[in-house]
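check this:
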Amino acid sequence: MHKKFIFTDLRAFCNLLQASLFVAVASYISGGSALYGGSPLHTFNEWADLYFNGNASASWDSNIFRDEEDEESDLKYILSPGLELNLGRGLSAYDMTIRTSYDFIRYQENDHLDAENFHISTSGVYRGSRLDLSGRLGYDENQITSGEDTAQRSIIETEDVNGKIDGEYRLSPKFSFGAGAHYYDRDYITGGRDELADWNHLRFPFDLFYKYTPKVDLSAGYTYKTGAVEDYYRGDTLIEGYDTTSHFINVGARGSFFPKLSGFFKVGYRTHDSDDSFEIRNGERTRSNRGSGSDGQIGLDSGLTWNPTLKTTHNLILKRDFGVGGEGTVTEVSRLRLDSSYSLNPRWSASSILGYTLRDYQANGGANRNREDNLYLLGLSLNYTAPDYWRFSGGYRYQDNDSNRRGYSFVSHNFYLTAQFRY
């Protein structure tokens, strides 16, 4: 049973007042004179600008460990100074941006969870007469509390490496061809316990586009994906890793479908094949139950934007794909998310998030057999944009994970205050 949430605790109220003071002071200290000027920190001739980016936030969470029965609340502070270098400035066919930041994370009660996380990424585009290229390479250290990975009474730390390059070549006024390579690698940082399965994948999308109207392209595509789930330990049992392959044959469209609706969608059939996985305990090697074998499902990938009025924007994301659980189990993941924003005036805006994710675990035995997780998300925020690149926001986020595996359901309530600045 989840504890009933009633926000009447005087201590929690005082903590939020303290958080407000932290955000204001940290923003002033880190931002310096940003409030009085929006020019770059430094300009290199006419082709590059260097900016200081900063973020200060405080958030109170009712269930920091995402525990079903023993909820524990805490107040978390994050101070994130960073730098951004823009190259090109739109003056040539090439543009590149390099960003880096460093998070100082501090908990009020659970100081053993304090951490410093590093982020760095570079992204660029090339626009030619026939060929367009875009790419990104990034490294991120994170703390995960979303319930997407398997762990109890702990906050998971990860190191993620991601990179991709996409290109499109215009064969004729009517036809163009797109291809790319996308890489993702996740490592769990568990203090030497090695109790979660690291994984990686490499994806190759191929698409042929036909200009159906001046504003809409039709597409036919194929995506090949290869991946690997690494070894990990469950107690004194070694769970061996395995390799996977996936195929996605799809059709779709992109562009402005109606005067107020634009975006893209792909729908088709997606298959997933896994090598056999084994467990070794006391020298005995037996087959694992993490979803080895073949499977198939309807695949979906879409992102649509609807602007019903000049002040209102709705972004809808729909995805259906295969994933990997924290214990290396193959999952079927169906995700829906609606982000909405409303501009009250040039300074003030309101936004909301509605999300639903279904994870169907494909294990044929063990604790994850027939497991399903239904994750519901609701978020509300109020935002204020000040002159010279300042932005302040405050809001509330609700998460409810309904799992049929005992101990893995949870409810969390989160209140936050954030200040973002750029100089």
User: Anything to note?
Assistant: The radius of gyration is 23 Å. Residues 10-422 form a domain with the Porin fold (CATH 2.40.160).
